[in-house]
């Protein structure tokens, strides 16, 4: 955005969220991502937060069907084989525009199916051994996977009598993680108390579920909170990862990150 903009600048306070309107020149970047259900999600973030890793998820629901599908950048199946299921057996099935990769642990205690595209991968897990061929074919035939540089979709095929729920798009950098979902299913997920107004949005600040050591170490920093924003189209949470730096340096830098990110971030959901 060019020129001065009136931004709501976040002030750290242990008991409340407070925004103050000030004039500040701020460099922003706008990114449109395609959600797993095909919606277009627009993220506005500080320009310096451009090293974004995009992921997400969606549930496919229907009669005798309850399948959670995760979305991640290309190469996710390689990470799983190396770090989560070492020594796994991998079968690859070629498809137009992507590969199906069935991964099974050597002891058959875990198995996962990946739709591996050139930009993104979708996956679902099976507890225990890999499913039989007819079951696997049924799972694959229920959805259509389509990949693009802006995101991948996993859409139930026409006539399958399935629906998508709990769709989420996640944007992560070293300094922030944004969890965004459609406001259509948001009412039951909002806090039960009134939040702080920021223009057309309502904002809440809630303590993260930390263990005693984490809570003590992160006390008084933005890293101990979840910041929830709700607008007409989107419900999204912002959290700040615990940086692997000294306490004094983290405290000094955390306030700057929080003010910059929370006063700039916007998310809108279309579709």
Summarize the structure.
By secondary structure, this protein is of the alpha+beta class.
What order do the helices and strands come in, and which of them pair?
Blueprint (H helix, E strand, L loop, with lengths): L4 E7 L6 E7 L3 E7 L5 E7 L6 E10 L2 E9 L2 H9 L4 E7 L2 E7 L5 E7 L3 E8 L5 H10 E4 L6 E4 L6 E10 L4 E6 L13 E3 L2 E7 L4 H7 L6 E6 L3 E6 L7 H18 L1 E5 L1
Antiparallel strand pairs: 1-2, 3-4, 4-19, 5-6, 5-13, 6-10, 7-8, 8-9, 9-10, 11-12, 13-14, 14-18, 15-16, 16-17, 17-18
Helix content range = 10-25%
Number of helices: 4
Report the end-to-end length measured between terminal Cα atoms.
Answer: 25 Å
Strand content is over 45%
Q: What value does the average pLDDT take?
A: 85
Strand order of the largest sheet: 7-8-9-10-6-5-13-14-18-17-16-15
Outline: globular
Q: Sketch the major β-sheet.
A: 12 strands, antiparallel
| Quaternary organization | single chain
Element pattern in H and E: EEEEEEHEEEEHEEEEEEHEEHE
SS content category: alpha+beta
Uncertain residue ranges: 1-25
The radius of gyration is 21 Å
Total strands: 19
Structural notes for this entry:
The protein is α+β, with helices and mostly antiparallel strands and 271 residues long. It is built from 4 helices and 19 strands. It has helices at 76-84, 133-142, 212-218, 247-264, and strands at residues 5-11, 18-24, 28-34, 40-46, 53-62, 65-73, 89-95, 98-104, 110-116, 120-127, 143-146, 153-156, 163-172, 177-182, 196-198, 201-207, 225-230, 234-239, 266-270. The longest helix is centred in the last third of the chain and has 18 residues, at 247-264. Residues 1-25 have low confidence and may be disordered.
């Amino acid at each position: 955005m060019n020129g001065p903009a009136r931004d709501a600048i976040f002030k750290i306070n242990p008991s409340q969220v407070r925004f103050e309107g000030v004039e500040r020149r701020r460099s922003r970047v706008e990114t449109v991502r395609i959600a797993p259900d095909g919606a277009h999600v627009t993220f506005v973030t500080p320009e310096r937060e451009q090293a974004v890793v995009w992921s997400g998820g969606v549930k496919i629901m229907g009669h005798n069907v309850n399948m959670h599908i995760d979305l991640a950048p290309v190469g996710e199946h390689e990470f799983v084989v190396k770090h989560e299921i070492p020594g796994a057996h991998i079968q690859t099935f070629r498809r137009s525009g992507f590969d199906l990769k069935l991964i099974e642990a050597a002891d058959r205690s875990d198995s996962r199916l990946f739709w591996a595209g050139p930009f993104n991968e979708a996956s679902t897990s099976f507890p225990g051994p890999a499913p039989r061929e007819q079951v696997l074919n049924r799972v694959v035939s229920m959805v259509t996977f389509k990949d693009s540089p802006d995101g991948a979709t996993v859409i139930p095929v026409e006539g399958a009598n399935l629906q998508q729920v709990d769709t989420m798009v996640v944007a992560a950098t070293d300094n922030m993680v944004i969890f965004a979902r459609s406001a259509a299913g948001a009412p039951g997920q909002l806090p039960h108390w009134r939040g702080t107004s920021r223009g057309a949005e309502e904002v809440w600040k809630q303590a993260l579920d930390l263990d005693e050591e984490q809570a003590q170490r992160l006390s008084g920093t933005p890293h101990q909170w979840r910041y929830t924003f709700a607008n007409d189209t989107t419900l999204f949470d912002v959290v700040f990862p615990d940086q692997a730096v000294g306490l004094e340096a983290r405290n000094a830098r955390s306030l700057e990150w929080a003010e910059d990110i929370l006063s700039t971030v916007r998310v809108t959901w279309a579709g």
